[in-house]
Amino acid sequence: MTTYTAPVDDMMFLYEKLRNNKFYNELDKYKDVTPDLVKNILEEAAKINQNLILPLAKAGDEQPAVLENGVVRTPPGYKEAYKKYIEDGWTSLSCDPKYGGQGMPKTVSAFFDEMLSSASLSFKLYSELSIGAYNCINHHATDDVKKKFLPKMVEGKWSGTMCLTEPVCGTDLGLLKTKAVEQSDGTYKLTGQKIFITSGDHDLTENIIHLVIARSSDSPSGTRGISLFLVPKFIVNEDGSLGPRNGISTGSIESKMGIKGSATCVLNFDEAAGYMIGPKNKGLNSMFTMMNLERIVVGIQGLGISEIAYQNSLIYSKERKQGKSNKNNSSNGSADFIIEHADIRRSLLNMKSIIEGERALCFWLSQQTEVSLNHNIEEVKQEAADYVSLMTPVVKALFTDMGSEITSEAMQIFGGYGYTKDQGIEQLYRDNRITPIYEGTNSVQAIDLVFRKLINKNGDIIDRYIKMIKKDLENNNEKLSPFIKDLNIYLDKLISFTTWIKDKVENSKDDANAACNDYLKVLGLIAVGHSWIKVLEVSFNDYDNNKEFYEDKIQTARFFFQRVLPRIDTHCISAMSGSGYIMDFKFN
Amino acid sequence: MTTYTAPVDDMMFLYEKLRNNKFYNELDKYKDVTPDLVKNILEEAAKINQNLILPLAKAGDEQPAVLENGVVRTPPGYKEAYKKYIEDGWTSLSCDPKYGGQGMPKTVSAFFDEMLSSASLSFKLYSELSIGAYNCINHHATDDVKKKFLPKMVEGKWSGTMCLTEPVCGTDLGLLKTKAVEQSDGTYKLTGQKIFITSGDHDLTENIIHLVIARSSDSPSGTRGISLFLVPKFIVNEDGSLGPRNGISTGSIESKMGIKGSATCVLNFDEAAGYMIGPKNKGLNSMFTMMNLERIVVGIQGLGISEIAYQNSLIYSKERKQGKSNKNNSSNGSADFIIEHADIRRSLLNMKSIIEGERALCFWLSQQTEVSLNHNIEEVKQEAADYVSLMTPVVKALFTDMGSEITSEAMQIFGGYGYTKDQGIEQLYRDNRITPIYEGTNSVQAIDLVFRKLINKNGDIIDRYIKMIKKDLENNNEKLSPFIKDLNIYLDKLISFTTWIKDKVENSKDDANAACNDYLKVLGLIAVGHSWIKVLEVSFNDYDNNKEFYEDKIQTARFFFQRVLPRIDTHCISAMSGSGYIMDFKFN
Questions:
Q1: A119: Cβ contacts below 8 Å, ≥ 6 apart
Q2: Is residue A179 a part of any domain in this protein?
Q3: β-strands A455-456, B455-456: how paired?
Q4: Domain membership flag for residue B158
Q5: Lowest mean pLDDT among A131-135, A210-214, A244-248, B171-175
C-alpha cells in the first residue's frame, strides 16, 4: 500500500515566488486569490487526497468497475468518497461563480489535479472529463443550454464525457461514422457506436452529459463534416428535472492493464436525442477547446503519478538495508540502507529533478493559460494562447513518458517486492501507462507539435518562444552562470534542430515525421531546464530566507543539468539522420 | 491474443554463417551437430512453441497459479502441455547424454530458450531452473548424488529450484539466516524461510529438487559462511524411489504484476533433510556457476519477449488504417495503413534492429560459453570464460531493459487497444518487467560488471575485449567502411569511458557506482554494434546468394548505427559528470 504526502511546500513556493508573469498578475479576477487562501485550499486538498481518496486506488485495482445488467458499478468506496468530494466542492474549484463555481485559477486547480492524480487516477477520471465538458459547453453553447446543464455539472451531481473514438477511428477522426439526423424541432437523433469512453457510465452521479462528435446526415465526409452534440443519459426537462432515459446503452466495459477502477465504456447510441453545440460542421474545433486543456491535465496525471512513485521509493530506500556503501569498512555482514548507495541516489535524484522541474513548467503554463483566457488585451491573450498551444503537446507527451520512466525506476528500487501487488508500486506503473496513449498518443502529440504548433497563423511561435528563453538567460547572477552556460549550449542545439525540422516540414515531410518524437523531447527538456533557471534565480536571490529549502533546489537542479539535459545530444544526432533508409525499408 | 512465428530463418542464418569461432569449431563433441540437424530441431521447436505453448501464456495470466490446501496448482493446460513437452525431450536438450540428455550445445539451446520465452515465460520458468540446478549438481556434486538425481531431472520428471532470497536478503546474501545443522550421518537439517522461489512448488513433476544456500551452524557470518545444499521435496530412497515428504512447506505464493502462471513461493524449511553440495562455506561460488548461466538466460527471456512483441505490432501496423501518410494526396477521408507513417516505421525498425543485433551477440556468447566449458586447451578455455564473465551482466541487463522498451513501443503502436487485455501486448509488457529485477537487479549487474568483471585475476579483460573488436574492424570491405567508421567513433568513446571508470573504481568508488548503469549500456551497445558488423560482413560477401534476406539485414543495421548507437553520447556525458553532488545530497 502506498503512502502520500501532498507536496504543499513546493506548490506554495511556486505560488508565492514564481507567480511572476506580469500579465497574469494584471488579471483582475484573481486579485483576491492570496497566498493565504491558496495555502488553505491546498492543505484541505492534501487532507482529502491523503485520507479519503488514496485508499480508493488499491480498492479500484482489486475490485474494478463492472458492468452488471447494463449498469456500471464503481468499486467499493467510490460512491461514499464521491459524495464527500462534491460536498466539499472540489468539482467546482475552477468553475465560474455564475454557475456555482469557486472561480479559482488554473494555477491553483492544476495543483489539485496533481494531488488527485497521485492519490487515485481511476477516481479522478470520474470528474475529470466533467471539467472538460463544462469548459466546452461554457465556451460554445447557448445561454439556455448553459443554464440548464452547467450548475449541476459544477456541483458534481451530473458528470460529463467526451465521446470521440469509434472502432475504426481513434487518431483519425475524419473516419467517424456516428450519424446525427436533424428533427423538426431543431434537435437531433444520434445513432452509432463510441468506444473507449472514460466514465461513459457509472453510478456516482444522477445524470451523465455526453459531448459527442457525429456527422449530420447532410454533412460532407472527412473532418469537415463533423459537428458536436450534447447528449444526456437522461433527458432533462424544461424545469431542470430528469425525464426519461435517452437512447444510450453501455455495450461493454474494457478489461485493462491499469486504471481498473475507471470504467472505459463502449456506448451505443440508438436514436439518442442530442443538441448541437457550436456551429455545424465545426465540431472538431469545438471539441479541441476541451481536448487541449484535457491534454495538459493528462500531462499533470503523469506528474502526479511520478510524485507518489518517487515518494514511496524514497521511503523504501531509507528503510531497506542491503549491501555495503563505499564508505562502509566493516568486515562483518552489516549492511547499509540502500539510500547510501550512489546508484540508488542517482536514480532518486533523476526522479526528483524531473518532477520538480515539470511542476515549475506546469505552473508557468497555468499562468499562460489564464492570460490566454482572461487578459483584456487581445494581443497579450493571443501570445499566451500561442505559448499554451506550443506547450500542450510537449507537456502531455513529456510528462507521461517521464511517468513511465519514473514509475519503472521506483519499482526497480523496490526490487522483487516492487513486482508484487503488496507495495502498490506496480499499480502506479500500470496506471500511468495509459497516459502516453489516451487523449492522442504521444506520437500524435509530437506530430501535432512539429506540423501544426511551431508556426501558425500568428507567426513563428517557436522562434518567439526561444527568444523569450534567450532573454531570460541574460542574467548576471554569478551563481546562475554555470547553469545558464549549460542551457545555452543545449538551446543552440534546439535552434539547429528547429531550423532543420522547419525545413523538413516544408520539403521532406517523412524526415520531419520520423524526427518528431525526438524533437518534442528536446523542446520539453529545454522547457524544463528553463523552468529550473527560474527556480534557481529565486533560490539564489532569496537564499538566506530559507537555506535548507533552496539548497535542496539548487542541488536538484544541478542533477538535472548534469545528467538529464544531456539526453538532448542523442535525440539530436539520431533524429537528424533523416528517414530515407526508414521509408525504403521493406517490412516483409 | 498474440501470434508467434519462431524466427527459424534468422537463427539458421546465425548457425550457418556466423559459427565462425575457430575454437568453437574445434570442439569434437559438437562435430555431429550439422546445420541439417539443427534445422530439424528448430523446426520442431517452432511447432511446439507456436502450437502447444503459446496458448498457455494467456491461460496463465487469466487463471494464475494458486496455492490450495498447501499445494500449488498450475494454470489450466500446463500439466498436459508439460507432459508432452518432456515426452518430446525438450528438458534434456542441452544435458549430458550420460544422464539421458541430447548433448546439444548452447548455440542451439539458446535458440530454444528464446522461442520458449516468446511463447510463454511463465511456462518456461517451470523447467528453466531445472537446467540451472542440473548444471550446478553436475558441476559440484559427487557421482552418487549425480546418479541419483540427474537422470530424472534431465527427463523432466523432477524439477529444480534455486533458493537464495530471504526476507532480509536479496542482493546481499551475506545477511542470510537459514541454518543447516549437521547430523551424525553427514547429512544436514535445514531450518529457515526462503522467499521469491520460482517454481518452489507446483503439480507438474513428481519431485522438486531445491538447491538451497544456508549457513552451517559452525560457519562464520557474512558471505564466507554460506554452503550449498540439495534439499528434495520428497526424500529419495537408495533405489531411486520416492520416500516421505521432506520438511518443506509452501507458506504462500506471491500475487504479481505479471508472469502470473508461474508460482513464486515462500518456502518454509523446518528441519528439512539436505545434502551438502560442493565445499563447505563455498556455497556462493557453487551457486554462481548456476546463477551466471541463468543470468544469460534471463537476458534471452528479454530477447524472446521483444521478438513476439515486435511481431505482433508489425502485423497490427499492416492491418490498422489511421491517418494519411505523407504520400497520400487524396482529399476524401481515406486513411493509410499505419505502417506507411514514418514514425511508426521508425519505431518498428528500432525494435527490429535491437532484437536481431542482440540475437547475433547472444549467438557469439553461446559459442564462447561452449569454448569456456569444453575446449581442451586451458588458456583458450580461460579466455572464453573471461569474455563470458564480462558479457553476462551486459546481456542480462541490456536485453531485459530493451525488453521493457520494446514491449512499451509495441503497446504504443496498438494505441488504446494495446492497453486492453484483448491483444495480449499489455501482458508481454507486464511479463517482461520482472526480467530487469530477478536474478540480480540490473543495477546489481552493472555494479558486478564495473567492479568485478572489467579486470579480474586473469588480467584486463575489458582491454582484451576492446582489442578483439578493434581487430575485427580492420576490414577492407568498402561497403562495410561507413559502418566501421561509425563503430570506431563510438568505440573510442567506450575506451575513454573505460579509462575513466577504471580510475574511479580505484580512486573514487561512488563516481564509478553512479556511472555503472550508463557504462553497462555503452558496452552493451558497442557489443551489439560489433555483432552487427559481423552480420554485415557476411551480408555483403554472400549478398548474391540471398539478396532479399541480406538487403533486409543491411538496412536494419543501418538503422541501428544511425539511430541506436548514438545513445552512447548521452550515457557518456551524463555518467562522467561524477557523483559529488549526488553523494552530498540530503534526502530530507
A1: A4, A49, A50, A53, A54, A56, A57, A308
A2: no
A3: unpaired
A4: no
A5: B171-175
CA B184 → CA A128, A129, B15, distances in Å? 70, 73, 53
Q: What are phi and psi of B321, to 5 degrees?
A: -100, 130
Chain A partners within 8 Å of B422 (Cβ): 255
| Closest-CA residue to B450 (of B394, B384, B385, B383) | B394
Contact B532, B561 (CB under 8 A): yes
Contact B153, B160 (CB under 8 A): yes
Q: What's phi and psi for A324, nearest 5 deg?
A: -100, 140
Q: Which of B114, B128, B409, B439 is catalytic?
A: B439
CB distance A517 to A446 below 8 Å: yes
Q: Is B326 close to A510, i.e. CB distance below 8 A?
A: yes
- Beta pairing, strands B179-182 & B207-216: parallel
Q: Are the C-beta atoms of A305 and B408 separated by less than 8 Å? A: no
CA distance A91 to A116: 12
Confidence of residue B94 (pLDDT cuts 50, 70, 90): very high
Question: Quick check: helix, strand or coil at residue A244?
Answer: strand
- Based on the residue annotation, tell me whether B439 is a catalytic residue of this protein: yes
Alpha helices in A375-508 (DSSP H): 378-414, 425-432, 442-448, 461-472, 481-507
Each residue of A100-121: pLDDT tens digit? 999 999 999 999 999 999 999 9
- SS3 string of B35-104? HHHHHHHHHHHHHHHHHHHHHHHHHHHHCCCEEECCEEECCCCHHHHHHHHHHCCHHHCCCCHHHCCCCC
**Chain A contacts of B256, Cβ < 8 Å?**
419-421, 426
Residues of chain B by 3-state class (helix, strand, coil), percent to 5: 60, 15, 25
The helix/strand/coil state of A65 is: coil
Residue entry with cell 552556460? A485
Residue contact A345–B168, C-beta within 8 A: no
Average pLDDT over residues A176-196: 96
B332, pLDDT greater than 70: no
- Burial class of residue B379 (count of CB atoms within 10 Å of its CB; 0-12, 13-18, 19+): exposed
Q: What is the pLDDT of residues A443-471, one digit of tens each?
A: 999 999 999 999 999 899 999 999 999 99
A246 occurs within a structural domain:
no
ipTM > 0.85, yes or no:
yes
Decide: pTM greater than 0.95: yes
Bridge partner residues of B198 (DSSP) = B264
Question: B510 vs A342: CB contact, 8 Å cut-off?
Answer: yes
Q: With a cut of 70, say whether residue A332 has pLDDT above it.
A: no
Domain assignment of residue B381, yes or no? no
What is the model's pLDDT at position B475?
87
Chain B contact probe: residue of A62, A226, A582, A587 with most B CBs at under 10 A = A582
Non-local CB neighbours of B389 within 8 Å, separated by 6+ positions:
B292, B453, B456, B461
Cα(A268)–Cα(A251) distance, integer angstroms: 6
Nearest CA in chain A to B444: A343
- Count up the domains in chain A and report the number: 1
Cross-chain CB nearest to A254 (options B420, B436, B510): B420
Which chain B residues are Cβ-neighbours of A442 within 8 angstroms? 412
Question: What's the rounded Cα separation, in Å, for the pair A424 and B297?
Answer: 29
The one-letter amino acid at A383: E
pLDDT band at A173 (very low <50, low <70, confident <90, very high): confident
> Nearest Cα to A417, choosing from B135, B165, B24?
B165
Which of A257, A450, A549 to mutate against chain B (most B CBs within 10 Å)?
Answer: A257
Q: By residue range, what is the domain housing residue A534?
A: 442-588
**One of A128, A294, A439, A537 is an active-site residue; which one?**
A439
